[in-house]
Amino acid sequence: MSFFDWDNAQKKRIRAGRGIGFEDAVFHIERGDLLDILESHQPERDPSQRVFVV
Prior knowledge:
The chain is an alpha+beta fold.
């Protein structure tokens, strides 16, 4: 089992703005609903960050 930790303020902002939250994304990733993994659109800011498409 993996451990996920996210900022509560960001969690609320994401859910309000997009209608989906981190918990939803984790649920679908764990179910195998991951469609793609993309490079970050700002690699200079955080080169290890990836974008998961679910």
